[in-house]
Amino acid sequence: MVIRIGAAGLCRTDLHIQEGQWAEKSQVQLPYTPGHENAGWVHEVGSGVSNVEVGDTVIVHPFITCGLCRACRSGDDMHCENGSFPGINRDGGFADFLLTSARSVVKLDPSLQPADIAALADAGLTAIHAVKKAIPVLGAGTKAVVIGAGGLGHIGIQCLKAYTPTEIIVIDPSEPALELARELGADHTVKVDGSHVDTVKELTDDLGAQAIIDFVGEKGAVEDGVAMIKDGGFYYVIGYGQNIDIPTIDVIFREISFIGNLVGTYADLQDLMTLTAQGKVTLHTTTYPLDAINDAMNDLDNGRLQGRGILVPG
Amino acid sequence: MVIRIGAAGLCRTDLHIQEGQWAEKSQVQLPYTPGHENAGWVHEVGSGVSNVEVGDTVIVHPFITCGLCRACRSGDDMHCENGSFPGINRDGGFADFLLTSARSVVKLDPSLQPADIAALADAGLTAIHAVKKAIPVLGAGTKAVVIGAGGLGHIGIQCLKAYTPTEIIVIDPSEPALELARELGADHTVKVDGSHVDTVKELTDDLGAQAIIDFVGEKGAVEDGVAMIKDGGFYYVIGYGQNIDIPTIDVIFREISFIGNLVGTYADLQDLMTLTAQGKVTLHTTTYPLDAINDAMNDLDNGRLQGRGILVPG
Amino acid sequence: MVIRIGAAGLCRTDLHIQEGQWAEKSQVQLPYTPGHENAGWVHEVGSGVSNVEVGDTVIVHPFITCGLCRACRSGDDMHCENGSFPGINRDGGFADFLLTSARSVVKLDPSLQPADIAALADAGLTAIHAVKKAIPVLGAGTKAVVIGAGGLGHIGIQCLKAYTPTEIIVIDPSEPALELARELGADHTVKVDGSHVDTVKELTDDLGAQAIIDFVGEKGAVEDGVAMIKDGGFYYVIGYGQNIDIPTIDVIFREISFIGNLVGTYADLQDLMTLTAQGKVTLHTTTYPLDAINDAMNDLDNGRLQGRGILVPG
Amino acid sequence: MVIRIGAAGLCRTDLHIQEGQWAEKSQVQLPYTPGHENAGWVHEVGSGVSNVEVGDTVIVHPFITCGLCRACRSGDDMHCENGSFPGINRDGGFADFLLTSARSVVKLDPSLQPADIAALADAGLTAIHAVKKAIPVLGAGTKAVVIGAGGLGHIGIQCLKAYTPTEIIVIDPSEPALELARELGADHTVKVDGSHVDTVKELTDDLGAQAIIDFVGEKGAVEDGVAMIKDGGFYYVIGYGQNIDIPTIDVIFREISFIGNLVGTYADLQDLMTLTAQGKVTLHTTTYPLDAINDAMNDLDNGRLQGRGILVPG
Lengths: 314, 314, 314, 314
Description:
By secondary structure, chain A is an alpha/beta fold.
């Protein structure tokens, strides 16, 4: 199936690809086109396609899956044994057209604009996937620390509010990001300024939080995060860059756990579109024309990008 | 409540205490008496005790808990806010008598001998606790790698067989330990000899196992374990010594998780006593008189101890 | 421990006791004092009590538990093997004083007034307990039908909103009750007027709802409820009076389940007090002096009681 | 995809179809061919089929699913919004050939004979599905009552043993069925003779069992089953015929739950084939030629059929 791209989100992973962090993992052949967060309109379909028609507005699940392996048959799309990942290991959506499959598209109301929702295809999807894993941990009276209120984090905060009664503490070095977090319902915001771990400890009666939801994973986030977990608590790893480096004695003595998160399932994407339609999740984005992609990447790298960056073909 | 010690198990943690790994965490005052794996007979009770009488044979849950805090009210004994840990941060059971509380004792059939079951109080309890966490992961067609078939591991293997239909792969450097693992029902045993990770990869179709149950946590176990997890899989941290040191990009790209485990609950101990009474768990031990404790510790440190070491007061 | 009663809630169960529905089950000796939903101040304590002091404001968990049996050790208070139930099988709180135990009291901020929160001790506790069971069923895009927006139902609605993103449909014969439901956040309200099942079917695309949360359980509620469940869905039984009477072929063909709910745990009560302190749950009550109890019971029986009825000793 | 039938299992549902219990639900057009438990060899495939080839030995999942709806995308095959059910609402496998889809077949080792495993396609699948739901309830020290050791029950017993450490009590009116149950590992067998409920109560310390797994659902099974549940326990409804008819006051006072079960998922069928390959599940069958189907149905109706009846085309 060919999608005419309406908008493609820019992700910290695109920076990490440029840095070479993904070269060995993706084994992608250069040159290729990144862009793994896509929405647009169906442009061309194969003969067997029954779920959408040419012209339909769609958001694109980032993974192309086979539908037949054990993972697919269990609803665990990201672990499809035969999957491929446009924008990571084959051509993606920083382009006019994208090749994907019928299994990867979610049909949307025609009134929706791709630029308004493209960022849900990966940033939002990853955030909701991690939050759904945390639901059993986050009952009444618990606290969750969200590290990073950027492209993923600002959606994560809204998912936490939709799914749980936990008290939300957001940490971020950027004052405007914290301002956005407060608007979206964070109970406490703490500026990352060196004293932030102590401030969070105070907010948690020196015990720490049941869940750390780390959308950053670099620049000291992991050490900070580990210091803020409550004994018996859980650390959700979403952002990446740095190592987790912790003595096993601390893992057992505090009985803490680290939970990996890789994007999300097709059902997660449907759920997120539902929350968006219900007004429980709203996206904050900054739009660039596709040919200004280098400006966008610079802004992202330097913390000047509010919400998620969106690229729109000319 | 005072227990007359019938037998006390010797644990790798007792070596780690001697090495100083616990000094900062436990804040124990020296000199003190270790021994956190105890069974014996009730020697003296306070006026309010209703669940046991003087002379009853009991196994002692290793943590003394308050019964009133949120953790206690939720059945999560090890996270009692007011707990203390005989043998770790106060005097333990390498002695003739042990001070504990009525909440910590499980009454046993008088025919049971403390030396035969003492090792269930911590080694067994820790093993069953970790295995119970792994049940949802270990359905039919899955594989679990058990690292270490010693004091904890040989009980873990039996718990895996009792609770799950998973295929069990055991790795250990000791041939007699692997022999014991086979007797207890391991489906595959692999000697730790440098090629063991490759062998396990072959046994798992190059995909790795859904669960790594690591009873060692040192001497390279963690690197090996990480290399053997299937994407989407879980690593249960039980043994300790070494660091977990892993790039967050691997945690997310493979969506793997690390689960901490701290001893077990009172209900876990009851469950283990039930499995033992049903013959589903049997202990393999080597007994020493209490005053030969230094020999026992040497044997443990040098891998000469089969099953669990048990100290019996003279 | 003796509590000076500040307020006691009136429950549909008190009507059912009068009708004789509980005589055989409770085996209570007549005469006795009902009242199982109590709050007040600690009046007298035994020597071993450490969690509260005379004068403390408390809400009383309705079950007196032993703390030592398997259920208690697992946090499953209501199935204590040695429990007793003031107001059901021994003297309760429609009185000046109540005898209970230290394990049953939750200490409150002294600024709280018993009359404002007493109804959380049973009505609220039962509602939150059922809602917590339903969390895994009620993801984004699901629908829940709440049957009855009275004493329990109006708290259930607020708990559903706090814990889940489900779309809430409330049915009730009383227009003021539906008005209250809308204020508390119900997404749809449907008057019970004979066409209500059809209306709910329309609201659920003719498929029914993933969860029916039935706070009524009589006067046709069960037939209505069964007709409104989605295939694969769950029926939470809370109110009672009528029979569930359903062919097993329907249970299997539709794969529907019926989940019993009995009051709630001590931890549930703590959770509810937290949600109340956070303003996520507010109680709607009508207060009567204790000696007007017969008027209160008449009002309840005739659907004239808004929210929960509260009796206050003179 | 066309399957050449190697064997088709006979099910109590085939009797219920003849009795007319399914007429309204299935809306099937008469005449039609029943047979919903099929195995054989791939006879013809469409152009897009990649998972099997002509000649492959396969077992057939009984439901034909679309692969695109929410249920399919979540691994919940039986609730496919576009599914059809050969043998129930369209032509099934009591025939030489069966029309199904590529999504419904599980490829088997060519050495397997369809007659040996066909009964896993529905009887076995339904049994494993129900047992997998019961895993969280059936820890060490629990008891499960299996009602009926026939075609489904004898597989259910083996699944319980593979997945849980529960103590298994089997009740059945037939002595040979109980004999089979004992061979397969039942811990206790009780003949249905009028005193069986009392006997089970004694075996459960007068408390009842945590789980009732009812493969019968008629002839008094439901009343018996309800009388044997422990407070807080679960009743798994699999067999059908009779009504569940129980006062809601009993459901709440005892906090018991009834769980519906409809066949099983594709992943459940894979799991069952794995357990069979590992020797953890073995089928007990009685084979008839396809044209002796009326004899087979008579034997089933009169309790003369040991294990599962299998029809083999001539």
